[in-house]
Amino acid sequence: MSRTRRVATATLNSAPVLAARSLGLAVALGFATSARSVRTVTRKRRQRAQRRSHRVARQSIIGAWHDTLEHLADAGLPPSRALTPDEQARAYRVRGAPDAVTGALADLAALYARTRFSDRNPTPDAARDAWEWADMVRDALAEGTTGRERARRALHREPESVGS
Fold first, then answer.
1. Residues 78-109 pLDDT 10s
2. Cβ distance 74 to 47 under 8 Å?
3. Alpha-carbon span 45 to 52, nearest angstrom
4. Residue 79 sits in the same domain as residue 104
5. Considering only CA atoms, which of 140, 6, 131 is closest in space to residue 72?
6. Are residues 28 and 44 in the same domain?
7. Secondary structure (DSSP) of 74-109
């Protein structure tokens, strides 16, 4: 190998060149990760806002139930697809959900089951109750969490369809 070629190869593999390449790769990966994180957070917020804004009480109650299950999944308590809503609420107590969660969750599960499996249309008051219970569960899950934990939960990617 000629001396010129050895010098050129050594220059391309020198520490400053490798450091610059590594830095460029790290920046590119950082941008890609940030873009994915922003999409995840934006998608979650948009879905949750759409659920809450349903004008039809039945759809609003179903949205409150799914929103609650997503918050539980984000907190490390994913739902079981094999359980009824009432069984699901009881199972969360056994699985370690905070006591403040289980009462509101039981009420919401009962309302969701009546709404989902009944021919009768729920009232707007029932929809307001559903969102009140969903908010109680969300607030109880957030109580005592650190900023880092809240960020982890916001970036948690749940399956497309959570719930029963």
1. 898 899 999 999 999 888 888 888 999 999 99
2. no
3. 11
4. yes
5. 140
6. yes
7. HTT-PPPTTS-HHHHHHHHHHTT--HHHHHHHHHHH
